[in-house]
Write a structure and sequence with these properties.
The complex is a heterodimer of chains A (about 140) and B (about 160). With about 140 residues, chain A is mainly beta. Chain A contains one helix and six strands; from the N terminus they run E-E-H-E-E-E-E. In chain A, strand 1 and strand 2 form a beta hairpin. Chain B has one domain: Thiol Ester Dehydrase, Chain A (Roll), CATH 3.10.129. Chain B is about 20% helix and about 40% strand. Chain B has two helices and seven strands. Classes of the chains: A mainly beta (about 140), B alpha+beta (about 160). Chain A: Pfam families: ApeI-like (PF22818). Chain A: InterPro entries: ApeI-like (IPR054545), FabA_FabZ (IPR013114), HotDog_dom_sf (IPR029069).
Chain lengths: ~140, ~160
């Protein structure tokens, strides 16, 4: 699968967004697979999805949504991690569900995303608040 | 001032290729501060499978890996300092949390990340750290607080 940005792995399998008055809700799913890139070294004797890859998963969730909404040339940059904490470990065979609530800041290109990542058994794996900049320049189509 | 080479880093950290993201330790003051480097190259897996004719920004080193590289640098400082005191830290090393991380620039293939990490405090199996990441004379990230944790019982085989 080809990509338009450097990334350690495909950190999202599917993503769906819905816009409401209060903001945008995006939900995504990522199945943890031991032979994904980078996981072989984390760690050699047993595999655990690195905590920072949940940040990558949330970032790619917003990228997917932005590419669908504003066109494939849309760039989504991570500008801040206000907070992130990691709880239950994600192991091969786990399915992570990612829920993102996105709100616009004063500058409409900058958004704040509050995300929670859960395992299929309901355990909270990670929660975070990220700042991202969505740059529609280069996206040819506004549809 | 002590330095550590790649062989030393591999003895300290459990991470392996391609997610061992510290190349060299330029300076280390045990218990206090470390300066590390990580070279970014176009041959890393994160640059595989990219489309053709992308803008320069597409080649920015992923923030997730940058933060991991910073955290690993802090872990080298913590674990090496503990070993020097003959108080080795046992268990699975994990990233616990981070706060107040601001990304103000980016690195691309050919750049060398330079992390400066200071230990704020250590409480049991938790190390709180903070610092900055530079490329040349440009600061590209400020990390207000990063928590590294060691936990028992994560590996299925605890032997």
């Amino acid at each position: 699968m080809s990509r338009r940005f450097a990334a350690p792995l495909d950190a999202v399998d599917t993503a769906d967004g819905a816009v409401s008055a209060g903001g945008t809700r995006i939900e995504a799913v990522k199945r943890i697979v031991a032979d994904d890139p980078y996981l072989g070294g984390h760690y050699p004797d047993f595999t655990i999805y690195p905590g920072v890859f949940t940040i990558e998963s949330v970032h790619q969730t917003v990228r997917r949504w932005a590419a669908e909404r504003y066109g494939p040339g849309t760039a989504v940059e991570l500008t801040s991690i206000a907070s992130v904490s990691f709880a239950a470990p994600l192991l091969p065979g786990d399915t992570m569900s990612i829920g993102c609530d996105m709100t616009s800041q004063d500058d409409p290109s900058s958004v704040r995303v509050k995300a929670r990542c859960h395992r299929a058994d309901g355990a909270l794996a990670a929660r975070m608040t990220l700042g991202l900049r969505i740059d529609r320049e280069g996206g040819h189509d506004d549809a | 001032m002590t330095t550590l080479e790649h062989a030393d880093i591999r003895r300290i950290l459990p991470h392996r290729h391609p997610v061992l993201l510290v190349d060299r330790v330029l300076e280390i003051e045990p218990g206090a501060r470390i300066v590390t480097t990580k070279a970014v190259t176009g041959s890393e897996p994160c640059y595989a499978g990219l489309d053709e004719n992308l803008p320069s920004a597409a080649y920015a080193y992923p923030v997730s890996l940058l933060v991991e590289s910073f955290g690993q640098s802090g872990a080298v400082l913590w674990l090496h300092s503990a070993a020097l005191k003959d108080e080795p830290v046992e268990g699975t090393l994990i990233f616990g949390s981070a706060r107040d991380v601001t990304i103000t620039g980016s690195a691309c293939p050919g750049d060398v990340l330079r992390h400066i990490v200071e230990i704020d405090r250590i409480i049991g199996d938790n190390a709180f750290m903070r610092g900055e990441t530079w490329v040349g004379d440009v600061r590209i990230a400020t990390l207000g607080s990063v928590l590294a944790v060691v936990r028992d019982g994560l590996a299925s085989d605890d032997s």
